[in-house]
Design brief:
By secondary structure, the chain is mainly α. Helices cover 73% and strands 2% of the residues.
């Protein structure tokens, strides 16, 4: 019962904030954002999956209002790496493995759109094994669109090859194709050969026809003058 009451109180916070915001001074608004950031930080580090999902809901509201603070980024980073790098074990058993939390976290990292968010997404790709998390991480890298050193393209090509050598994943491959196309359009540098090799592997590999055809289409588009 106490937990239910706590959840009801927390759930009412966004409504209170919306009503109060129109009458706030700049100082009061800044203070309210600080309170919001503190609540998000504490919820993100809760042991409860339920609390983490509430934190993600608050983060979505915060980003919509333009709150892309360092506290928000750190909360997303923590939750996106929970169960992989941030591990909690009891009697030798991993107890904080929440793929759905990680997937939502990487989606919001893409909306932050910063270099730091992109670096976290690349770390996720190296350490996570859940296809649904990896798909979202790859999409978010495409949404950010930053790849000045070519590391994003190389990392995406690497993870596709990793799955291709074991269990090819159509949705993962399709996310990679779309993101490679976005990054290539935004870059003035020569495309990394690993990206071309990845697209050829998908076009000729054990994937459904629609994914194969999309890879061929992007190969053709990349060949055309930019």
């Amino acid at each position: 019962m106490k937990r239910l009451i706590l959840l009801m109180i927390i759930a009412s916070i966004p409504v209170i904030m919306v009503v109060a915001q129109s009458e706030m001074t700049v100082e009061e608004s800044y203070l309210q954002e600080s309170v919001e950031n503190m609540i998000i930080r504490e919820q993100s580090r809760s042991e409860s999956r339920e609390m983490k999902m509430i934190a993600l809901s608050y983060i979505g509201d915060a980003i919509d209002r333009g709150n892309k603070s360092e506290e928000v980024r750190k909360a997303l980073e923590y939750m996106s790496l929970e169960g992989t790098i941030n591990r909690t074990q009891e009697n030798g058993r991993l107890v904080n493995n929440y793929p759905d939390v990680r997937r939502e976290s990487v989606k919001y990292l893409g909306l932050l759109g910063t270099e730091e968010a992109k670096d976290t997404l690349l770390t996720i790709i190296y350490y996570d094994n859940e296809p649904m998390v990896l798909q979202e991480a790859i999409k978010s890298i495409g949404d950010i669109g930053i790849d000045d050193n070519g590391k994003s393209i190389a990392t995406i090509a690497w993870i596709v090859q990793k799955f291709d050598n074991t269990v090819p994943d159509n949705l993962l491959a399709l996310s990679a194709i779309e993101t490679i196309e976005k990054l290539a359009k935004n870059s003035s540098k020569t495309l990394d050969p690993s990206a071309v090799q990845m697209l050829i592997r998908i076009a000729e590999g054990n994937y459904i026809r629609v994914v194969q055809e999309r890879a061929k289409q992007v190969l053709g588009n990349l060949r055309a003058p930019r």
